[in-house]
Structure formats: C-alpha cells, structure tokens
Amino acid sequence: GLERGAKNQFSTFSNFITTINQKKEGIGNRNSPTQLVIPNIKNVRDLPPICLDVRQKQRISIDTLPQELKAPIPPEPSLPIRTKTVKDFQDDVEKAKSSGDWKAVHDFYSTTFDSFLEINAAFKKDTNSPFNTIEDSGINAKFVNVVYDALLNTPQDVQKSVLKGIINGLLQEWKGPRTKDDLRAYCILLQNPQFSNTSTYVIYAHLLRQIAALTEADHHFLVHWSKKISQKRFKQLVDRLLQFISLRLFPAKPEEFPPMVKCTWWIPSATKVLALFNAANSLISPSIISYTDFYNSTLDHIDLMEEYHNWQCYGNSHRFSFCQYPFIISIAAKKVIIQRDSEQQMISIARQSLVDKVSRRQKPDMNMLFLNVKVRRTHLVSDSLDELARKRADLKKKLKVTFVGEAGLDMGGLTKEWFLLLIRQIFHPDYGMFTYHKDSHCHWFSSFKCDNYSEFRLVGALMGLAVYNSITLDIRFPPCCYKKLLSPPIVPCDHNTLVGICDVTLDDLFQIMPELAHGLSELLSYEGNVEEDFYSTFQVFQEEFGVIKSYNLKPNGDKIPVTNQNRKEYVQLYVDFLLNKSIYKQFAAFYYGFHSVCASYALLLLRPEEVEILVCGSPELDMSALQRSTQYEGYQKTDLTIRYFWDVVLGFSLDLQKKLLHFATGSDRVPVGGMADLNFKISKSETSTNWLPVAHTCFNQLCLPPYKNKKELKQKLIIGISNAEGFGLE
C-alpha cells in the first residue's frame, strides 16, 4: 500500500464502503438530488437526465446570466486557519522523497480534502474575504496546481486518503443554496488528476452530478471562474470529461463500471458540466482552446440518427440527446446527420411525387425522382435561375444536370462542372453582384440597389444545393457571412421578421475590409479632439454607378458631429450599416435561397465556422493522406514518374500545394471527410513530355505525362499549376 510512482492503480473501494454505509445510516433514505451514494456496483440510483432543448435556446452552451445578477448568498461558515504555503508544501514533499517518511504529506492531503471547508481553508487566497464576484474565484491557483502535480507521485495510501476525503465531502447533507465556498470546492475538485483513472469514475460521476444539478446562478459563477484557468489545465479538464463520456459509452472493461441501466445519469451529468467549460471558452476572444477540442470522435460511432430523432421528437422533455449539446458532436458526425436527413427528405419528396403521379393515373417517369436542371452553356446564369425558380418544389430531390446539346450523362461530373462554371461567372467582378476585396481575399455583397434580387437567391440556393448534394464550392465569403446565414437558423414563420441580421463588430469588418477597419480603429484610439480634427458626422458616403450617395447612420445623422464621447456609437453604427443594413435585401434573398434547400433542424447543430467547412471544405491540407488515398489509371504507385511526383509535391510549400489542389479539383480546400473523400486520380497522359499536366476538375483527375526525371516533372508541374486559370491557360 506504500508503493510510490504514477501507476495510479487503485484497489477496490471496499475499504471505503464501510465508512459510506455508516454515513448512509445517519442520512437515511432521503432522495436529495445532490446526495452522493457510492454504490455497490449493483445498486446505483437514477437521477432524472439533465438536458436542455436547442430549439428553445438555439445554441446550447449554458446561457450565461447578466453580470449584475446576484444570487441569494447564504452565510459563509467560518474557515479553519491553515497557514501552509506553497514553499512549505514543496519542502515537505522533498523531505518525504529523500527520507521515505510521508507522514507530513499524508496528513496535509487527508486534512485538506476531508471537507469543503478544509479545501477552502487550504486554497482560498484570503480566508477573511468573501470573494463573491464572478471576476475572482479567490482560489490560489498556483497552490492547487502544485498540490495536484505532486499527488500522483505520492504513495497509494496518500492518494486513497484524498479520494476518501472527497467522498466525505460529497456525502454531506446540503440544505438550501450553495455558498461560494462550496462552488470554490467544486471548482478545485474538478481539477483532480486522479479522475483520469477509470477506478475513480464512480466518485467522479457523483461529483459531476452534484455540479450539474446546481442552480443556473451557481453555474454562472463556475463559468466565469473557469475562464481564468490556464490553457493547459483547461484543456486537461475538457479531455478528462470527454474521456469519461467515451469510456462510459464504450468501456474497455465493462466490469469496472456499474451496469449502464443503473447509471443513466453519468453521461448527461458529464455533458452538462462540459457545457459549462464550452460556455467559458466562448466568453473569451480569442477562445482558450479551439471549439474543435470539444469534439468527441467516439460519438461518430453511435447511432447518430437515433440521437437526432430523439431530439426532434422529445424536444424539451427530460430525454437526453447529444444533439442538445451540439458542441460535442464533430463536424464529420454533423455532416452524416445532415446528409442522412437530406436523403430522407429526398426520398420523401420523390415518393410523394410518385404517389401523386399514380393517383392521377399517369405513367411514372424516373426523371420525376430527381431535380433535373437543363441549361445552355451560353445562357448559364439565366437558364439556371429559370430552372430553379420553376422547380422550387423539387429542390430537395437529388440533383442531375444536363447541358443542352451535349450527350453526357450526369454521374456527378456534370453537376460539379455546373457548380464550377456558375460560381466563376456569378462571382466575376464584371458581373456586379459581389465585390472582391484583394486585401482580405474574399467576396462581399454589392450594396448597389436593383429592382430584382433573384440572382442573390440563386447563389443562396446554389450553396444550399452544394451542402445538400455534398459538393465543395470554391467560394470565398468571410466568416461573418455564415454567422448571418444562421440568424436565425430556422426560417421564421412571420415573413415580416428580419433575417440575416446579426451582431457585428470591428473584428468582422477587419475580415472583409481591413484597411477601413484599421482606420475606424485608429479613430477609437485617437487622443486628440475628434470633432475638430476629423470633422465627421453620423453619415456614410458610398459611390453607386459613379454617383456619390450619403446615408444617415441615425436620424438627423448629418447634423450630429462625431466626438470623443460618441465615437464608439459611430463606429458600431458604421459597421452595422456596412455589414447589415446596406445589403439587407441582397442578403435576405441569399438567406431565403439557402434555406429553401437546407431548411432543417439539423442547422441548429452547426456553428458558423462549421457551415463554412460544409460549403467550402477545410483549409488544412495533408498531402501524405492524399498520397495514401490516390487512385491510378495507366500508372502503378511504384512507377518512377509517380514516385517523382510525390517527392516533388510533398516538398512543395503550402502555397504550391494549395495551387496543385485547386488546379486538379477546382478548390484548394478539403472536404469534411478528409483527403480520401476527394477520390483523387492520377492518369497517364500519352502525350509528349513537352506538354504540361492537364486536369479534369469535374472528376478530380490529373493527367500526367511520363516525364523522364524529377527536375522536368517539377518544372512542368509548377508552370501548369501557377498559370492555369479557369479552363484554359492565359
């Protein structure tokens, strides 16, 4: 029992059960929702699942309460006086390591973790201060970290004493609201590294249940305190919770845990606590960790559609579904949900068309099962607009494209070519619908007024069809566009409700017009007299077809000077005008076009960044993964030309690798499923080696002549990918 080291393998809790049973006799059979019963493996009481409804609150992260909210504060009990410092503790640990006498360290751990009061006495920065604000938890984080870092290297009896103390603390009877000292204790206990070991999961689960069952006001404090945790520790906490959920879903040794039917509250409790950390992460810009660090890839292997249907059917009832907490579902899993939901809608619409045809005693036609788009290359935009407008009822069917006068059958290639050609034409600067900003390398909506915004609806429908039919588009919209596209994520029933309007900031403008945003930022930080030096009013001037027009940012804005006192309001109104009001009709048409195809509750699961990835793919390239999944026609992967090719490509800079991908597939981004989903193929071209490589972007195919050496291949490949634009060389 005195073995040292970080094995962290604890024996069974039989030696704890006696203590627990004694406490249970005093507690009786009362069913307090926060009461802890460390069970025999055969007897675990159910707690009603903790869940929230996404449709009710749109985005589940744990809604943070207003900062001015004050929860009832129960009186804080007086804390014991503990004077041990970080240095004192470190000295005790060093003495124990050299002498082998761990008594002082054992006494510290067993006393400190014996109760919530003792935890606060040891780790509270000042025992005489209440620390009742969200801004400061009052926790001595450095001391907590040092104590936990040393814990796993202590003898087993020391580690067991900590667990025993935690059990004692959790078993106490609670009456009324928690004190801030209780919340501090929960915050500290969550960081215990012992909970990474499955043998402690019974205790960990009950800790999570008590935290999950706290009031919303208490969660508010925990969220704000959690955002002060260091990035490293924060990531460890999130990973520990994700591991707990994964191992409860798919235990390596099922006998280690109580039967699933006896602890149905484990996963809902852990997920709700994880939601607190997700909320804390979203409060800070930039966030502490990436939103993708909350993904649990284990969920990719469960029945996602059952989760989705439970969420749709039971709404805000007490039936738990991971879809209530979409931050935990990976983009790959969300894509599966959206695709299957799309397929079911396609089948339903097609079946209804078939039934209608038969009921009218008409002969069924297989074409009625598809969205058939017939266009002329010479009238691509107008024909596409007419087809989608005429066949609005068929938008949720499988897409098939035919080019008039051409015999090609659409096996996917014609559909992709249609998207490529249409996007290139619509986004061309001469077309006037979108403005390309060179500084940010993205497109934005033209604010020019027109009589008909149907072409913007077409672009929205194209994006929707791309998501619906799993096509990756080469579109460069800023992140703000996707935030607007989900505002709201479900089309409102009242057509008078504004759509595509979201809160925008100067950061959003930086992503589109960095030079203008920089100028406004300079205005905000200007130390002189803004009114006298800038001589500006609450107006915006824009050039439209050679004519300068002015727009008031607020009533009588042309008579209101911009001053040091109102410049923040001026900048906010300016940004809102550029990104919301000046393009409202254009974006509303775009919004309705997208949702005419993609209307689904599945959109509630998505973040704006995830919508962008579904539409445009991911910017992260892995050329080694592409090499592993590439198919060959006329070549073997061991052929000298192919070996030259991959030696050259893997040595390319990221910029050249992106150019190669764009040259071969029409986009420099990767589908959600990774490089394997590209179905990239290299075919042998029987032309002269003097020729450059040729690409068939509709089929993600590269035609490569059998170049004689690596130098020639590299030279020709770089020329080809660096000078090709569209479907010909300039």
UniProtKB/TrEMBL annotation:
InterPro entries: E3A/B/C-like, HECT_dom, Hect_E3_ubiquitin_ligase
Entry function: E3 ubiquitin-protein ligase which accepts ubiquitin from an E2 ubiquitin-conjugating enzyme in the form of a thioester and then directly transfers the ubiquitin to targeted substrates.
Native source species: Cepphus grylle (Black guillemot)
Pathway: Protein modification; protein ubiquitination
Annotated GO biological process: protein polyubiquitination
Enzyme class: transferase
Residues of the active site: 698
Coiled coil regions, renumbered to chain: none
GO molecular function, one term: ligase activity
Cited Pfam families: HECT
Record field: catalytic activity: S-ubiquitinyl-[E2 ubiquitin-conjugating enzyme]-L-cysteine + [acceptor protein]-L-lysine = [E2 ubiquitin-conjugating enzyme]-L-cysteine + N(6)-ubiquitinyl-[acceptor protein]-L-lysine
UniProt domain HECT: residue ranges: 391-730
PANTHER family in alphabetical order: HECT-TYPE E3 UBIQUITIN TRANSFERASE, UBIQUITIN-PROTEIN LIGASE E3C
EC number of this enzyme: 2.3.2.26
Alphabetical keyword list: Ligase, Phosphoprotein, Transferase, Ubl conjugation pathway
Protein name (record): Probable E3 ubiquitin-protein ligase HECTD2
